[in-house]
Design goal:
This protein is of the alpha/beta class. It has two domains: 71 residues, no CATH class; 148 residues, Nucleotidyltransferase, domain 5, CATH 3.30.420. It has a five-stranded mixed β-sheet, with helices on both faces. Helix 3 packs across helix 5 and helix 9 crosses helix 10. About 3% of the residues have low confidence.
Length: 264
C-alpha cells in the first residue's frame, strides 16, 4: 500500500490514506513464549468461568503461581478476543457504525435441520502461537456444517465458512451470532441478505443465547486442541478436520436421544 519508491513522499501517501506515519515503520513483534503460556491458561479458565473478568482471572492465575497484573490480563484477553460473559445495561444499542439485530430465538422450538444455524469464533492455542477458529453449527442436529482457521480476526474467514455451509446444505431460515465485528461486517450481512436469511444476534454478554456452540468449544479444546498442541496452522487445520469428522459421525448427544449429528 505504501511504497518507498513512489514519487509522492511517504508522509503524503500516509495523509492520502489516512494512516499514521508511525505504522509504516512498525515491525510486528511475535508474542512471547511467556504470554503464550499465559494465554493458554486464560483460555482454560475462561471455559471454566465464562463470567470472569480481568480481575478475577488475574486472581485465578495467581492462585496457580503466576505473577501478573490486571492490565496485562486485559491486554491478553483483547488479543484472544474473549471477554467476561455477563449481562450489561443498554444491550439493545447498536455498536457504532453497525446495525445490531434482535435475538429471534427466545421461545422458539428448533426441531428440524436448516431451521437455525449458529456461528461463533474461538481462540485456538498452538505450540508456538495461536489462531482463531470459526464454526457453523446446525442447532437442531448439532452438526458442524463448516469451519475455518485464521490468524486474524477479520470477517473474511467467517464469510468463507458461511459460504461453504450454504453451498453444501442450502440456506437456513435463521442465522444466530454474537455482536462481534466479524458478524456485523458488511460482507457477512450482505451474504445473509442475499440468501433471504433472517439475522439473529445474542444480547451483549448473553452467552446462554448461543449455549450449544459455547459447549462445543469446551469439548473441542479438552478432547483435541489441548491434547495435541499443534506446531503449525496446517497441522491444526488437519487435526480439527479429523476431530469434527469424528464429532459428526460418532459423538452421541444426550439431547439427541443418544444419536449422532449424522443420524439426523
Amino acid at each position: 500500500m505504501i511504497s518507498q519508491e513512489h514519487p509522492l513522499p511517504v508522509t503524503r501517501q500516509c495523509q492520502l490514506l489516512a494512516l499514521p506515519r508511525s505504522s509504516v515503520y512498525y515491525t510486528p513483534q511475535p508474542v512471547s513464549a511467556g504470554d503464550l503460556a499465559l494465554m493458554r491458561q486464560l483460555d482454560e479458565l475462561h471455559l471454566e468461568y465464562p463470567f470472569a473478568g480481568s480481575r478475577l482471572l488475574r486472581d485465578l492465575l495467581r492462585l496457580r503461581g503466576g505473577r501478573i497484573g490486571r492490565k496485562h490480563v486485559a491486554t491478553l484477553m483483547r488479543r484472544m478476543g474473549i471477554e467476561a460473559l455477563i449481562r450489561r445495561k443498554s444491550t439493545s444499542r447498536p455498536a457504532p457504525g453497525h446495525q445490531i439485530y434482535p435475538y429471534l430465538l427466545r421461545n422458539v422450538t428448533v426441531e428440524r435441520p436448516n431451521q437455525v444455524w449458529a456461528l461463533d469464533i474461538t481462540y485456538v492455542p498452538m505450540r508456538r502461537g495461536f489462531v482463531y477458529f470459526v464454526a457453523v453449527m446446525d442447532w437442531a442436529t448439532r452438526r458442524i456444517l463448516a469451519h475455518r482457521l485464521s490468524n486474524t480476526l477479520t470477517a473474511d474467514f467467517c464469510v468463507d465458512a458461511l459460504d461453504e455451509a450454504i453451498t453444501r446444505y442450502g440456506a437456513p431460515e435463521i442465522v444466530n451470532t454474537d455482536q462481534g465485528s466479524q458478524f456485523t461486517a458488511e460482507g457477512f450481512i450482505e451474504q445473509l441478505d442475499a440468501h433471504g436469511i433472517q439475522i439473529s444476534m445474542d444480547g451483549k454478554g448473553r452467552w446462554m443465547d448461543n449455549v450449544f456452540i459455547e459447549r462445543l468449544w469446551k469439548s473441542m479444546k479438552y478432547e483435541d486442541v489441548y491434547l495435541k498442541a499443534c506446531s503449525s496452522v496446517a497441522e491444526a487445520r488437519q487435526g480439527l478436520r479429523e476431530y469434527f469428522d469424528f464429532y459428526n459421525r460418532q459423538q452421541r448427544h444426550q439431547s439427541l436421544a443418544r444419536r449422532t449429528p449424522d443420524d439426523l
